[in-house]
Design brief:
Elements lengths: L4 E6 L7 H18 L3 E6 L5 H13 L3 H22 L3 H31 L3 H9 L1 H15 L5 E4 L5 E2 L20 H17 L3 E5 L2 E4 L4 E3 L5 H11 L4 E6 L20 E3 H9 L20 E5 L8 E4 L7 E18 L9 H10 L6 E5 L3 E7 L3 H11 L5 E17 L7 H10 L7 E4 L3 E7 L3 H18 L8 H8 L1
Parallel strand pairs: 1-2, 1-8, 2-5, 3-5, 4-6, 8-10, 9-11
Antiparallel strand pairs: 6-7, 10-11, 12-14, 12-15, 13-14, 15-17, 16-17
Helix pairs in contact: 1-3, 1-6, 2-3, 2-4, 3-4, 3-6, 4-5, 4-6, 7-8, 10-11, 12-13
Length: 495
């Protein structure tokens, strides 16, 4: 199967209704009938909003609110029955689909009952919650399979979990009704994927499989974390040695900014893995941050396309290629806090960065941006929701007579992602000036060769995004920015 297949993954908005599922089916049929170079393997998410609904059912179950749980289950049934009416025109296939949905909902009810018993015993509650949360993908698989068959394509639902994972740690700190992501075990997943998928491919049958969920080596249903269906698709693609993974969503690819906030955002034809990962880390929603972990070492490209505009080829994310220096996209990450740890002893304080970050890790708060660091001063950004826990640990464990801990809230990080910033001494100034032109103060900033990070007040985040996009992206596409030649360029010109 090596390089003979591609993975097509459809997100929750793509399968959000019966009408949309029929659009997805037409794309799958187009690929299966030889229009694409490789044979398709399909990964689908739950219908938009269904995973949240299932987690609500899990919370009601754990808290004993059984009437509210039953009401949500009825709404869930109605949503999928309504979609089933639309996805197929054949009465016989429709009746079969109704039966499959009812059987799935019966098994879901059994998993809800098992969660109720686990909650009463306080035994593996999060894993039983994952079993409930994973039913949205299985129901989507049934709907998509029926819609594709309606177009005359041989296809089969694969409801078993393909991805094999480690057994996640039981996190008692997490509230009820949440799922904890487990880590995929690639060799075990490869063996399982070939056992489940290869026989179908050999018979020319399109497999339609579940995203989001896996199965632990100890036999429990689990997930790879919220919004991780993109990640699941690349894990499955690597396990099967695919040539490409295509993520179908509701935009024409990766854009230069969030199109909901910036009306003149432009699609990008290509991004490197590193650029796409940085965009995800700093708030871009189009791809899950872990999506590229499996594919990058193997140089498997990931293409982002629009389900509702399938003729557009979208954005290819792959190995780094020679691109013009400068900003390529702007994004923001909001609701952050700036924590500053400062020594009162300017002459004898040792470097304590390791201890500070270890304490932040104990609060489950990975630093999002490290703003400044020295032997006597360290400042970094964390999610605002984690700030109190981090500050409390720092104040408890750091010597209060020597170290002062401060926290500034209601901040956002604006990230200008690109390349060649270190070679252009005016890059950071252009970004700061773009904000200054709109009277948006920059609280602090940092720069690497691939990113300029500007910290602003959270209330200014959207205005800052538009200013930076206008000042660094649009102007650069209309009038190339004048920049100072690098030393390497000067030497080349001298020769």
């Amino acid at each position: 199967m090596e390089n003979k297949v591609s993975v097509l993954k459809f997100g929750g908005t793509s399968v959000g209704s019966g009408e949309r599922i029929r659009q997805v089916a037409s794309i799958i049929a187009h690929a299966a009938n030889g229009a694409e170079e490789h044979f398709p393997i399909i990964v689908v998410s739950a219908m938009a909003g269904v995973t949240d609904q299932l987690l609500k059912i899990a919370r009601h179950t754990c808290t004993g609110e059984h009437e509210r749980c039953e009401a949500e289950l009825r709404l869930l049934r109605d949503k999928h029955i309504d979609a089933a009416v639309q996805v197929t025109c054949d009465d016989e296939r429709r009746m079969k689909l109704f039966v499959q949905i009812e059987e799935a909902l019966t098994t879901l009810a059994q998993d809800v009952a098992a969660l109720c018993r686990a909650a009463q015993r306080n035994d593996e509650v999060q894993l039983h919650t994952a079993a409930v949360a994973g039913w949205g993908e299985r129901l989507s698989v049934l709907l998509v399979t029926a819609a594709v068959r309606d177009l005359g394509v041989a296809t089969e639902s694969v409801l078993q979990e393909i991805i094999i994972t480690s057994h996640p740690k039981n996190d008692t700190v997490q509230p009820l009704g949440v799922v904890v992501g487990a880590d995929p075990l690639m060799e075990e997943t490869r063996i399982n994927a070939h056992a489940l998928i290869a026989p179908l491919i050999e018979r020319g049958i399109v497999p339609i499989t579940v995203g989001f969920i896996g199965r632990t080596i100890t036999g429990y249903v689990t997930t790879l974390g919220r919004n991780a269906s993109d990640y699941c698709a690349t894990v499955i693609g690597v396990a099967l040695g695919c040539a490409e993974v295509t993520i179908y969503t509701d935009v024409d690819g990766v854009l230069t900014a969030d199109p909901r906030l910036v009306k003149n955002a432009q699609p990008l034809s290509r991004l490197s893995y590193a650029e796409a990962a940085r965009l995800s880390w700093f708030g871009a929603k189009v791809l899950h941050p872990r999506t590229f972990i499996p594919v990058a070492p193997r140089n498997i490209p990931v293409r982002v396309r629009n389900t509702f505009n399938p003729h557009v080829r979208g954005t290819v994310v792959g190995p780094a290629a020679r691109m013009p220096s400068g900003a390529r996209a702007i994004t923001t990450r909001r609701h952050l806090a700036l924590i500053t740890v400062e020594s009162t002893d300017l002459f004898g304080a040792p470097e304590n960065a390791g201890q500070i970050f270890a304490l932040a890790a104990r609060a489950d708060a990975a630093p999002i941006v490290i703003c400044s660091s020295s032997g006597h001063h360290l400042s970094f950004m964390v999610e605002e929701a984690s700030a109190d826990s981090v500050v409390a640990l720092l104040q408890h464990d750091m010597d209060a007579s020597t170290w002062r801990v401060r926290c500034r809230r209601n901040l956002a990080a604006c990230a200008c992602i690109g390349s060649g910033f270190n070679a252009d001494p005016t890059s950071a100034a252009q970004a700061i000036n773009a904000l200054a032109s709109e009277d948006i103060p920059t609280i602090t900033q940092g720069m690497s060769d691939q990113a300029i990070i500007l910290i602003v007040e959270d209330q200014d985040a959207e205005s800052a995004l538009r200013c930076l996009h206008r000042g660094l992206i649009l102007i650069a596409t209309i009038v190339p920015l004048v920049r100072h030649p690098t030393q390497q360029e000067k030497r080349r010109e001298a020769r």
